[in-house]
Amino acid sequence: MTLNILFAARPERWQQYRAPLESALAAEGLDVNLGTDLPPETVDYIVYAPNGPLRDFTPYTRARAVLSLWAGVETIVGNPTLKIPLTRMVDHGLTQGMTEWVVGHSLRHHLGIDSHIHGQNGTWNPISPPLAEDRRITILGLGTLGQACAAALTRIGFPVTGWSRTPKIVEGITCRAGPEGLRAALATADICILLLPDTPATENILNTETIGWMPRGAFVMNPGRGPLIDDTALLSALDTGQIAHATLDVFRIEPLPADHPYWAHPNVTVTPHIAAETRADTAAQVVAENIRRSEAGQPLRYLVDPERGY
Ligand code: NAP
Q1: Where residue 119 falls among pLDDT bands split at 50, 70, 90?
Q2: Which fold has domain 93-270?
């Protein structure tokens, strides 16, 4: 039977994904009609990007699943017209990209690299940075990305604490969980990395009170989602020195407006939501495998739980 698969993302993505999807679906032994403009009532699966045009799933009466190309699904998970299973993206390219961004920016702050790049003024000031073992890192969010980053950082020697909703045991790191574990997790956050999903429970998780639980002069890195941070609280903590520097990849409004105070603040680094990108070749294989599993009656991988919102 031929499966009708709708590709619902921005037009430029179609050029990028068409060939990788066709070849991954064929490799899974699936006979498909893949397109961007199929009659809704004929569609069996929807490959979906949250920033694409599709908002109303009602006409897709026979669709069996929506497969998101993004890891973060906050803009679709509460869509009242979505009545079928939703999967999120877990992909080697995404995980590796995030790990590289997190390790790179952690080392920048840990080694004080900026002072050498910007401080070439003829002064010989031989102060060595501490070793990694003397710089504690806390990762809020111990899922696919948080655990991959934790593993890479512990390999370098950083003592890592991770915080999640449900209790976990992860070799080599200290695990904290739930609202009652947050204070202890932040108490050792010389560097704090946010890798949580955007849900009602995680909104403003870094606020005036919780920032105050961190060691003075801590670094904040947010490659998770903009709403995780109360921006006013962070700006004020940067001004008082409670937070030494914030490296931010994600924002409540993207692109970050040109007049936003983050752009001009000397202790903020803005990266334009590039920490980790879904890579078409590897993501196509994840999508194709999931469609093959669904057709074989096997459970979908990376299912989103609408109740918990991620
Ligand atoms: P994931 O596997 O779903 O992991 C999410 C983690 O957050 C889990 O450990 C979860 O706890 C924890 N969590 C959720 N709600 C919580 C709460 N209320 N309190 C404490 N912990 C909570 O997600 P992922 O694949 O690692 O991705 C994480 C986020 O990264 C995504 O949601 C997305 O927003 C962001 N992201 C950003 C980029 C970028 O380019 N900047 C790229 C990809 C993803 P449990 O383990 O107990 O469930």
Answers
A1: confident
A2: Rossmann fold (3.40.50)
Q: Where in the chain is the domain with CATH 3.40.50.720?
A: 3-91+278-295, 93-270
Q: What is the pTM of this model?
A: 0.97
**What's the CA dihedral at 258, 260, 264, 266 to 10 degrees?**
-140
Q: Tell how far the Cα of 33 is from the centroid of ligand 1, in angstroms.
A: 33
165 assigned to active site: no
What 3-state DSSP class applies to 29? coil
Contacts of 149 (CB under 8 A, 6+ apart): 98, 99, 102, 103, 139, 193, 195
Cα 150 to ligand 1 centroid, rounded to whole Å? 13
- Residue pair 37/49 in contact (Cβ under 8 Å)? The answer is no
Question: pLDDT tens digits, residue range 176-219?
Answer: 999 999 999 999 999 999 999 999 999 999 999 999 999 999 99
Rounded Cα gap, residues 164 and 168, in angstroms:
8
What's the farthest any 2 CA atoms get from each other in the chain?
A: 73
> What is the enclosing helix (H) or strand (E) of 46?
strand 45-48
DSSP 257: P
Cα(156)–Cα(87) distance, integer angstroms: 33
- CATH class as words, domain 3-91+278-295: alpha beta
Torsion sign across C-alpha atoms 135, 136, 139, 144: positive
Whether 55 sits among the annotated catalytic residues: the reply is no
Catalytic residue from among 252, 273, 279, 293: 273
DSSP letter at 135 equals S
8 Å CB contact between 85 and 63: no
Kindly report, residue by residue over 131-153, the tens digit of the pLDDT: 999 999 999 999 999 999 999 99
In this structure, the residues whose C-beta lies within 6 A of any atom of ligand 1 are: 71-72, 94, 98, 141-146, 163-166, 195-199, 201-202, 223-225, 249-250, 273, 275-276, 310
Contact 5, 25 (CB under 8 A): yes
